[in-house]
Amino acid sequence: MLLPARRTYTLILAIFVLLILVACTRQLDPGRWSFRGLRPLSTHNNPSETVAQPVETPLSNSDIPVIQPVSGDVVDAGESSVVPPPPPAQPTEPAQSIEPPAEKVSEAPTEPQEPPKKPPIDLNKYLTSIRDINDTSLDRLKCPPADRERYDYLRTLHNLPATPPPFKPYFFALNLHECIHILPRLLGSIVEAIRILGPENCALSIVEGRSDDGTFEVLTALNQSLPEGVDYYFSRSEINPTKSGRIGSLAELRNLAIQPLTDHPERFSSTNTTVIFFNDVAACPDDILELVHQKVFQKADMTCAMDWNYVDYSGSFRLTFYDVWIARTMSGESFFHIPFGGSWNESMRLFFGQNDADRLSKARFEKGLPFQVFACWNGGVVFDAKPIMDEGVRFRLNRDNECYQGEVSLFTKDLWIKGHGNIAVVPSVNLAYDDKTAVRIQKEKGLPGDWNRKNARNKSIHVPWKTMPPPKVLCIPDWVRQPQTWVDWNE
């Protein structure tokens, strides 16, 4: 009887082991269970049903150049950026993690760490540098003396008999953020331009935002460096284009800068005040004054500079036009072709279109002569105050069913709609967003005075204006996510 008992015991033991194996196999079923922590991946009723989790993979393209950072985040960039921001995306559900929750490790409490503070600036040095065009206490781009013989007439252009005049013929506007390094050159040049235009004829409006590098402190004390007679409007804004809708935020900031025109209409003239709006760029006095002069000489509604940056093309740095997302030729094309996917390999072929409008632009550009465009900003512009003061034109975000584009693109589009289509790029004015790049640009592109001497006897110096815009304009909402399309210019 002992043998059967042993067999029975062995059979029972085998059945028990088999049950354990079945249970383990069920727990390790990858269709329902995670191997790490045996946590369910899905709460669906069907144990064999799995849920695909959304995964964002970064875009990569060996053709896309690495853009070197520029100062500030206004405006522009404009803060008009070379790489356009994508339209606001619809919120999505976060991907479900399959990692087990991390175990809590008790640590001794620590005191909150403050971010490192930037060293204080020598405020007097900055104010002196801005006030004195010849001061060398701070490093900055070297500029030639302003060509007073060419620009002195701008001071008496309006033949204003009274002193002070009944209105300010020149209104400077700036948005500035974290750009202490550019202030000696930019503001120094503006102050020198103001001296030539006449301090009694000028107003300066600056909106600063969120700077902790000394920019705010310099601008707060800037009155000490301004010539007597200048109206100075200074304000600070917490609007942050990197935290909210970028284009809408940039539009708000630009509108704040021009707000004194409508807040104090008695101080300005809708028919005789000129707005001079610059980004945070390294500009010489002649760069500013040449844009003003060409607006008068060409009978333009708006004049723009050309802005540039050095871009890394697989280790080879090349001078590249910067504001390509904004600018459009009179054929409606971008200044150079960027195919869907974002390759900048064709950036050296400016005005590439095989049509009469682009051929004319290319020919005049190569001679340093102003040429008409549909849209531009390019680091610095000069335009009439009338659309702002009388016609309600403002910087804005695109409307529903309107091409997603920059606030300055929409500004120039609205100028065309209001009948102010004499918009020209002045290629003898070339700007950069830091002093080092500006030095190289001066060598490669020349100064306004160099081009003026070359074209002194050129009989084709006047822009051949067209009254009608291009019927279609290229819409580029994004380089890599949405296709480019041609849309009606006034959609």
TrEMBL record:
<protein>
    <recommendedName>
        <fullName>Alpha-1,3-mannosyltransferase CMT1</fullName>
    </recommendedName>
</protein>
<feature type="compositionally biased region" description="Polar residues">
    <location>
        <begin position="42"/>
        <end position="51"/>
    </location>
</feature>
<dbReference type="Pfam" id="PF11735">
    <property type="entry name" value="CAP59_mtransfer"/>
</dbReference>
<feature type="signal peptide">
    <location>
        <begin position="1"/>
        <end position="27"/>
    </location>
</feature>
<feature type="region of interest" description="Disordered">
    <location>
        <begin position="38"/>
        <end position="123"/>
    </location>
</feature>
<dbReference type="InterPro" id="IPR021047">
    <property type="entry name" value="Mannosyltransferase_CMT1"/>
</dbReference>
<keyword id="KW-0732">Signal</keyword>
